[in-house]
Amino acid sequence: MAHIILGFILVSAAASRAIAAPPPCSEVAQMVSPCVPYLAGRVWAPFGPCCGGVAALNQTVATDGDREIVCNCLRSVAPRFPMIDVRRAAVLPRLCGVAVNVTIAPGVDCSRIITPP
Prior knowledge:
single chain, mainly alpha, Hydrophobic Seed Protein, 6 helices, Bifun_inhib/LTP/seed_sf, lipid-binding, Bifunc_inhib/LTP/seed_store, signal, Non-specific lipid-transfer protein
C-alpha cells in the first residue's frame, strides 16, 4: 500500500509538459507530505498545500527520464507512508485538478512511464 503514494504522484507527473528538471528526492517528499492527512483518511478532502504540492511536482517533470527519476524517488520514500488508502490515492490528482492518463497501482514500473499523447 505504501507504493500508492508513488502512484498518485507519478500519475500527476505523467501529465506534465514543463521543461524544468525534476527536484531532488528530498524535495519530492516535501511536496507530497501535505497530502498524507488526506491519503491516510484523517481529513475529508485534500487541502491547499496538498494540491499545491501535486501541481508543483507535475510542473517539474518534462521528459520520460524525469518521470522515471521522480518515480524511483517516490518508490524509495513510499515505505515512510504505510497508512495510505489506495482509493484516496487514485482520486487525488483529479481532486487537485491535475489531468492524468496513467493507471495508479502499487506495482508501478518506473521504466515504463511515458509522456502522454
